[in-house]
Amino acid sequence: MNAVELTCELVRIDTINPRSPERPAAELCARLLEKAGWQVRLHEFAPGRASVVARREGPGERKPICFAGHLDTVPLGARAWSRDPFAGEIDSGKLHGRGSSDMKSGVAAMVAAALLMKRFPKAGMTLLLLAGEETGCEGAAHLARLPGALGSAGALVVGEPTGNQPVLGHKGALWLRARTRGVTAHGSMPERGVNAVVKAARAVLQLAEVRFAIAPDPLLGAPTLNIGTIAGGLNVNSVPDEAAIGIDIRTIPAQRHAQVRKELQAALGPEVELSALVDLEGVRTPEDDPFVQTVLGIVEAPPGVATYFTDASVLTPAFGGVATVVLGPGEMALCHQTDEYCRVDRIEESVEVYGRIARAWCGS
Fold first, then answer.
1. pLDDT in the model for residue 1
2. Is the whole-model pTM more than 0.85?
3. What is the gyration radius of the CA atoms in the chain, in angstroms?
4. pLDDT in tens, 44-58
5. 257 and 314: one domain?
6. Given this model, what pLDDT does residue 307 score?
7. I need a labelling partner for 94 at 20 to 30 A (CA). Which of 63, 105, 230, 307 fits?
8. Which domain holds residue 246?
9. CB 98 within 8 A of CB 26
């Protein structure tokens, strides 16, 4: 089964997170790799939520190279699709369906490239096909907590959609819930209560003025803060005793999330309680890193940046801060979109690119 055929098969398996567990897709990939002699294990962080860890050992002279991708997808959305999102149809050089770009094409290309690898004279190779990325890298975090599950790695390639352009980093995601509390009372006697919505309004105005005192990253730019949601109160004729604000902070790798939270808490004051919904640090590998230089020489394209977060937020630190490149056949602009597709030629190209990167590292 080649990478295009495997992409079609994976698209036909509904892995919408969290309603449809990833195990059927994980088992399909696992069977192909086991048949080719790879050592394969499946790890579940919840029933059916399976990630694949596949390995081929090297002589131990250097750590393995790791290729990682996720099996889950986001929901279809309210807008009607013009094609069946689970048919895996190919038309006019485009492979259509949910997950075609984000990122079942990347997973398929990694598996196809791995199946072509026959020798590992300098180093081994690991494939991580992960569950639960779309809701905060749950599968990667689960593996990182399991002793010995990840093993070691000397370099990491994440197959998220980049149009086969090498991406050397992405911002971190720190999503916070800011909660204010009050005392409820009848709406005709507001002086007897404490209005949590008013507290939240003050907090929103403070958040709108937040500026991060850090120089922008040359590739990733400056960190950002967005107030995404606000909710409070039960009915119009009562003083609300609780309100909540959803905050989306995109950090750069030079920032530490613990310090960001500390500074934000100081700015908001004691009447606001902060709790983390998603806490994933950014990733950035310097352009002059030897592994990056190898990849850039193979791809022959300038480095870019991604607007999304990836499993590298968990895997890169878990592997000790290894050099990381995000590189995949999907179209970045089509992530989470209705009528998602991936170009067939990009899938075929990525198999060749992944194979060349693996051979350069493993010596095959």
1. 87
2. yes
3. 23
4. 999 999 999 999 999
5. no
6. 77
7. 307
8. 172-280
9. no
**Secondary structure of the chain as H, E, C letters:** CCHHHHHHHHHCCCCECCCCCCHHHHHHHHHHHHHCCCEEEEEECCCCCEEEEEEECCCCCCCCEEEEEECCECCCCCCCCCCCCCCCCEECCEEECCCHHHHHHHHHHHHHHHHHCCCCCCCCEEEEEECCCCCCCHHHHHHHHCCCCCCCCCEEEECCCCCCCCEEEECEEEEEEEEEECECCECCCHHHCECHHHHHHHHHHHHHCCCCCCCCECCCECCEEEEEEEEECCCCCECCCEEEEEEEEEECCCCCHHHHHHHHHHHHCCCEEEEEEEEECCEECCCCCHHHHHHHHHHCCCCEEECCCCCHHHHHHHCCCCEEEECCCCCHHHCCCCCCEEEHHHHHHHHHHHHHHHHHHHCC
Q: Are 43 and 69 in contact (CB under 8 A)?
A: no
pLDDT 10s digits, 52-101: 999 999 987 799 999 999 999 999 988 999 999 999 999 999 999 999 99
- Same domain for 42 and 157, yes or no, is yes
| Alpha carbon of residue 185 to chain centroid | 44
- CA–CA gap between residue 45 and residue 190 (Å, rounded): 48
Residues near 220 by beta carbon (within 8 Å), at least 6 away in sequence: 169, 170, 171, 252, 253, 282, 284, 305
- pLDDT tens across 293-327, in order? 999 999 988 998 887 899 999 999 999 999 999 99
Report the CATH number that the domain containing residue 210 is assigned in CATH.
3.30.70.360
pLDDT in the model for residue 333 = 87
Could you read off the pLDDT of 153-202 as tens digits, one per residue?
Answer: 999 999 999 999 999 999 999 999 999 999 999 999 999 999 999 999 99
| Domain stops at, among 226, 254, 280 | 280
Per the structure, the count of domains in the chain is 2
